[in-house]
Amino acid sequence: MSEVSNGPDWWQAADGKWYPPEQRPSATPPPAAPSSPRMSGASSSKSSFAFDMKKWSQPERITAFATLVLLISLFLPWFTYNYGVGSVSVDGLWHGWMYLVFILCIVILVFLVAKASYSVMPFTLPIGEVQLLLFGTAINFVLTLLAFVLKPGGIGFSGIGWGFGSFVGLAASVVAAAPLGVPAIKARRH
Length: 190
Prior knowledge:
With about 190 residues, this protein is mostly helical. It is about 50% helix and about 10% strand.
């Protein structure tokens, strides 16, 4: 026992005195080595990720589900053409601008998953959360409506019909935007 440490293995007890390594109680674990800042940040960010859909409001739940359905619908048959002995179809990405809908769906879903998973968002937003979702879902609705109306071959071209993917996609885009858009429209009127 000593008032000062006499080597690197000496340990300090609760009484403030220093003891040699052979007197260390076996129940006391050795002090943990300090972790590097890089490691502590990585472990704390991993432990703070916990997906919980209960963090979403009801409009956010509806928007998340409908956006996922819209994303899936882009790969379903949107337009069909029957040429007598067979038929052919194209998916929702036939119109090139629908890739923007695809990207916006991914962004909206990533944002909502992050919101449901982190207590503090790992990124900052340039606008409010509701405005961001409203803006994204409104763009998706307008582009999906255009893709629905503008069939391949033009408006007056007959023989090309809508596939079930186009109806699913149009309905999903309306449902995704409505929970956020309807209250915003009502607030503007008052």
